[in-house]
């Protein structure tokens, strides 16, 4: 019998940059502090809803409160000169056009699309680039539904911040599922589709249905799983409980499950407080009852969750609710990374200490993991080899499937925060995968793993098709 929760109805109300003066809790800040928030919000996206403000933020402990750091603009997110410049423009009542012009200069310098997202990840179908999709790893295609390119609340660390600041030439979005289905038919090596954004859960159920139903067709029998990346279970759990179409959403998820596809909700929980409310706990219960598996992931973020006990508490809470701890990511090298990044050495220590504090049920989690240009690189340990202290690294995913699970070594560096700051260990001059990455960039890499002329078809025990 599912656990019963009493979830009071709540109307969704959102605040953006132009509403900062209208958020009552911000009355405790000085005019200059509020001006600094507005200056940062001119450059980086800001959007928050009243559920986050009323139930997740501890206003007695701002600005240090982790959820406040996670959702509200912080002055340290911009370089001092950039912050002063934007504040001066606001004091001078600069026009919106002038604010946008100056903000754009700062945005372009913040590495808006890291890890080869534009040059290496966008696939092609019949010679046409599919701007609303990414295909980096053989088994998985990312799909960006155009109706899901916003969120209930924006995370201040978000590596997809260009989606929300008007950089349309850097935006991933697809209007219809037709191209996705056509691409999947041409690439039978793909067994998983990940809906991402933005947040697909901002869509009404009737819109989401248009995307999901075609994926249940019989001629896509190689498709094993459908994933939905979302922060809604943390920032607007009402989407799954008391929203007008929440019941319809659960029925849709049940249909996916009954059609023989694994449905995974890739929930982004950054702090245990996001799972403290009755509404958040009820959302997890409803998702599980509808046949979805809730897998939990988040980056390690300075000022928010950069201590071991926070992560151990987070994983334990997830286990209690029947969710699966999945990933601890390293904050990507984009946007205000200088404010949020944690050195890899410390990240490994935090992960290892937290990992020791949970039982085997929580050790499904992997990390710290970098989603870098060549693939997902795990910091798997620190060791000494022939008298040299090294990071032990491993590919969890890779552009070349032959690299997956391969171990390699980097010189130990206490200050390094990303793969490109590390140097190969044991006398190697460059990373062994670098020549292949250079060739991919030069040749305009496109996935060809599913070439049926070279592949062998196999029907699995459960009736799914695989190509080897």
Tag the structure with descriptive keywords.
alpha/beta; 14 helices
Task: Provide structural commentary.
The chain is an alpha/beta fold and 468 residues long. Mean pLDDT is 90; it is low at 451-456 and 461-465. The strands form four sheets. Strands 5-6-7-8-9-10-11-12-13-14-15 form an eleven-stranded mixed beta sheet. A two-stranded antiparallel sheet has the order 1-2. The chain starts with 13 loop residues before the first strand and ends with a strand. It has a domain at 14-108. Strand 3 (124-125) and strand 4 form a beta hairpin. The protein is built from 14 helices and 17 strands.
Element layout with pairings:
Elements: E1 14-16, H1 31-43, E2 47-49, H2 50-56, H3 66-71, H4 80-91, H5 96-108, E3 124-125, E4 128-129, E5 133-137, E6 140-143, H6 178-186, E7 192-195, H7 205-212, E8 225-230, H8 232-235, H9 246-258, E9 262-268, H10 278-289, E10 293-300, H11 308-320, E11 324-330, H12 337-340, H13 344-356, E12 366-371, E13 375-385, E14 388-398, E15 407-411, H14 434-443, E16 457-459, E17 465-467
Parallel strand pairs: 6-7, 7-8, 8-9, 9-10, 10-11, 11-12
Antiparallel strand pairs: 1-2, 3-4, 5-6, 12-13, 13-14, 14-15, 16-17
Helix pairs in contact: 1-4, 4-5, 7-9, 11-13
């Amino acid at each position: 019998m599912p656990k019963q929760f009493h979830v009071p109805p709540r109307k969704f109300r959102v605040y953006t940059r132009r509403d900062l003066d209208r958020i009552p809790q911000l009355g405790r800040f000085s005019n200059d502090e509020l001006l600094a928030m507005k200056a940062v919000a001119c450059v980086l996206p800001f959007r928050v809803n009243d559920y986050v403000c009323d139930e997740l933020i501890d206003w007695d402990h701002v600005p240090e409160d982790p959820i406040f750091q996670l959702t509200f603009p912080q002055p340290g997110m911009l370089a001092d000169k950039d912050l002063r410049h934007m504040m001066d423009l606001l004091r001078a009542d600069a026009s919106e056009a002038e604010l946008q012009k100056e903000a754009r200069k700062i945005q372009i310098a913040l590495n808006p699309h890291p890890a080869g997202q534009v040059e290496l990840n966008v696939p092609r179908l019949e010679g046409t680039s599919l701007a609303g999709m990414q295909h980096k790893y053989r088994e998985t295609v990312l799909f960006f539904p155009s109706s899901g390119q916003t969120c209930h609340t924006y995370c201040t660390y978000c590596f997809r911040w260009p989606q929300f600041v008007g950089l349309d030439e850097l935006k991933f979005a697809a209007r219809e599922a037709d191209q996705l289905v056509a691409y999947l038919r041409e690439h039978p090596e793909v067994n998983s589709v990940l809906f991402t954004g933005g947040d697909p859960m901002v869509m009404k159920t009737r819109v989401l249905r248009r995307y999901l139903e075609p994926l249940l067709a019989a001629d896509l029998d190689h498709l094993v799983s459908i994933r939905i990346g979302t922060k809604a279970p943390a920032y607007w759990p009402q989407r799954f409980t008391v929203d007008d179409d929440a019941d319809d959403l659960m029925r849709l998820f049940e249909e996916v499950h009954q059609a023989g596809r694994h449905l995974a909700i890739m929930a982004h929980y950054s702090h245990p407080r996001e799972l403290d409310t009755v509404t958040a706990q009820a959302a997890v219960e409803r998702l599980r009852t509808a046949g979805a598996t809730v897998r939990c992931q988040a980056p390690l973020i300075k000022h928010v969750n950069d201590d071991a006990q926070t992560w151990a508490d987070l994983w334990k809470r997830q286990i209690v609710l029947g969710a699966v701890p999945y990933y601890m990511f390293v904050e990507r090298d984009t946007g205000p990374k200088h404010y949020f990044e944690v050195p890899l050495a410390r990240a490994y220590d935090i992960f290892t200490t937290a990992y020791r504090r949970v039982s085997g049920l929580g050790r499904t989690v992997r990390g710290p993991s970098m989603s870098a240009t060549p693939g997902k690189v795990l910091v798997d340990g620190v060791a000494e080899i022939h008298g040299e202290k090294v990071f032990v690294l491993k590919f969890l995913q890779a552009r070349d499937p032959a690299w997956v699970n391969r171990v390699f070594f980097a010189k130990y560096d206490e200050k390094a925060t990303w793969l490109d700051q590390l140097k190969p260990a044991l006398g190697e001059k460059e990373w062994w995968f670098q020549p292949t990455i250079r060739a991919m960039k030069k040749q305009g890499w496109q996935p060809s793993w599913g070439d049926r002329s070279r592949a062998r078809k196999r029907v699995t025990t459960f009736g799914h098709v695989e190509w080897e």
